[in-house]
C-alpha cells in the first residue's frame, strides 16, 4: 500500500479540530508536529518511523507519531477517520448554494494580532476551500489584549501582504484590511490615511458594550457614516455558548439557556437604514460563539434592504469553514445571494468598497 503524506494528514487533522472549535492545545500539537516534519527530508521521517524515534523530535508526541506511522503505512490515520466521521451534516439546498457562491471571506485574523496561524497558512487554507480571496482584518491598536496593530505595524503588514501575494497560487489573492474598533465617540481606532490604503475595512464595537441604546446608536451611526468603513462587524457584540450551537441552531435559544454575553442595545431601524442608504454591508458573523446578528435583527436588516457579508471571523485555518453556519442563517432569514458582497468577484467587491471613500 502506497504511503500517504503524513504532513498533509497532520494538517488536515488540525484543520478539522479548528473547525470543530476544539481546544487550542490539541490543535497546536498537530500543527507543531506538521511544521517540524515538513522541515525534514521524507526519507529521514520514514527512517525515524521505522526506528520508533519520531518522539525524540521536539514537537512530536506519541499521538502525532502514531498518526505519522499510519500515514506512512498507507492508512488513513485513525484519529483523522474519527474526525471525518463526526464532522457534522453537510449543508443542503439554498444554504449549500450560497456557500458554493461565496468567493472569499472578509473578516479573518492571523498571528499578527490574536490569530493562531501565520498569514500564509490562512491563505493556503482559503485556497483549499475554493476561495478567490481572503481579507486579512487583524485588530486595531486599542484592543491590546488582541495585540492590535499600531499604525507602524499595519503599514508593515500591508507591505508583507504584497510580498506574499506574489508567491500564492494564480487566481488567489489576499486583500488588505482591518477590524477597526469603533471608539466611544464613534471615531475609528486607526490612522485615517492608512485606512484609506486598505481594500476592506470592518468596523466593530469591542468596548463599552453595555452603553445605553442612544449612546450605542450614535457610536454605530458615526462609524457607518465614516467613508473608510465598508462592513459593520458583529453588530450586537453578543456571545453565545458555542457548545450548544450546531449546524442549523438558532443561537438565540442557547443564549437564553446559558448566557455568555448579552447583545448590546441600539436602534436597529436607524442603524440598518443607515447601512442601506450608504451601501455599507452588515456582517453575518459565522463564529459558533457569536452567530451575530440574532435572527430577529438579521430579518430587520433584510427588510431594510441592507447588503451583507457572510464572514467567518476565523482565528485559525479550520475556522474558515465556519462560513457554513452563516450561510444557513442567511438563507433562513431571506438573504438573497447577490446581496452578499463576498459572493462577488474580487473586482466588483473592490469597486464597491472604493465607492465609499
The number of strands is: 7
Q: Total helix count?
A: 15
Question: What percent of residues are in strands?
Answer: 5-15%
Count of distinct structural domains: 2
CATH topology annotation of the largest domain: TIM Barrel
Rounded mean pLDDT is 93
Which structural class fits the helix and strand makeup? Answer: alpha/beta
In the sheet with the most strands, the strands line up as 1-2-3-4-5-6-7
Terminal residue distance: 59 Å
- Would you list the SSEs in sequence order as H and E? HHHHHHEHEHEHEHEHHEHEHH
What is the level 1 CATH name of the largest domain? Alpha Beta
Low-confidence stretches: 244-258
Give a written overview of the molecule.
- This protein has helices spanning 6-19, 24-38, 42-51, 62-72, 78-85, 93-101, 119-128, 151-165, 192-197, 213-225, 252-257, 268-277, 295-304, 323-332, 346-354; strands at 104-108, 133-136, 173-181, 200-204, 231-232, 281-285, 307-311.
- The protein has 2 domains: 6-85, DNA polymerase, domain 1 (Orthogonal Bundle), CATH 1.10.150; 93-354, Alpha-Beta Barrel (TIM Barrel), CATH 3.20.20.140.
- Helix 10 runs parallel beside helix 12 (268-277).
- The radius of gyration is 21 Å and the shape is elongated.
- It has a 7-stranded parallel beta sheet with strand order 1-2-3-4-5-6-7.
- The chain is built from 15 helices and 7 strands.
- The longest helix has 15 residues, at 24-38.
- The protein is an alpha/beta fold and 357 residues long.
Amino acid at each position: 500500500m502506497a504511503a500517504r503524506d503524513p504532513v498533509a494528514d497532520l494538517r488536515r487533522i488540525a484543520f478539522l479540530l479548528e473547525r470543530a472549535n476544539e481546544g487550542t492545545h490539541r490543535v497546536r500539537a498537530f500543527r507543531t508536529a506538521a511544521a517540524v516534519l515538513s522541515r525534514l527530508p521524507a526519507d529521514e521521517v520514514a527512517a525515524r518511523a521505522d526506528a520508533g524515534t519520531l518522539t525524540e523530535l521536539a514537537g512530536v508526541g506519541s499521538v502525532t507519531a502514531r498518526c505519522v506511522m499510519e500515514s506512512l503505512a498507507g492508512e488513513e490515520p485513525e484519529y483523522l477517520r474519527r474526525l471525518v466521521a463526526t464532522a457534522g451534516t453537510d449543508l443542503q439546498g439554498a444554504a449549500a448554494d450560497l456557500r458554493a457562491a461565496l468567493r472569499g471571506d472578509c473578516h479573518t485574523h492571523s498571528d499578527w494580532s490574536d490569530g493562531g496561524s501565520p498569514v500564509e497558512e490562512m491563505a493556503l487554507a482559503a485556497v483549499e476551500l475554493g476561495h478567490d480571496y481572503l481579507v486579512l482584518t487583524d485588530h486595531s491598536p486599542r484592543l491590546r489584549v488582541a495585540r492590535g496593530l499600531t499604525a507602524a505595524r499595519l503599514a508593515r503588514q500591508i507591505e508583507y501582504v504584497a510580498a506574499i501575494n506574489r508567491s500564492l497560487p494564480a487566481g488567489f489573492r489576499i486583500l488588505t484590511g482591518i477590524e477597526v474598533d469603533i471608539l466611544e465617540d464613534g471615531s475609528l481606532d486607526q490612522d485615517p490615511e492608512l485606512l484609506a490604503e486598505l481594500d476592506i475595512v470592518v468596523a466593530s464595537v469591542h468596548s463599552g458594550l453595555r452603553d445605553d441604546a442612544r449612546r450605542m446608536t450614535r457610536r454605530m451611526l458615526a462609524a457607518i457614516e465614516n467613508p473608510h468603513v465598508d462592513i459593520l462587524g458583529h453588530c450586537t457584540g453578543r456571545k453565545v455558548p458555542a457548545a450548544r450551537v450546531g449546524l442549523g441552531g438558532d443561537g438565540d435559544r442557547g443564549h437564553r439557556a446559558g448566557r455568555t454575553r448579552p447583545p448590546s442595545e441600539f436602534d436597529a431601524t436607524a442603524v440598518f437604514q443607515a447601512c442601506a442608504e450608504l451601501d455599507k454591508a452588515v456582517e453575518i458573523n459565522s463564529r459558533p460563539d457569536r452567530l451575530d446578528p440574532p435572527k430577529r435583527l438579521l430579518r430587520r436588516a433584510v427588510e431594510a434592504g441592507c447588503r451583507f457579508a457572510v464572514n467567518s471571523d476565523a482565528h485559525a485555518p479550520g475556522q474558515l469553514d465556519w462560513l457554513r453556519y452563516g450561510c444557513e442563517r442567511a438563507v433562513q432569514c431571506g438573504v438573497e445571494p447577490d446581496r452578499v458582497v463576498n459572493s462577488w468577484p474580487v473586482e466588483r467587491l473592490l469597486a464597491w468598497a472604493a465607492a465609499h471613500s
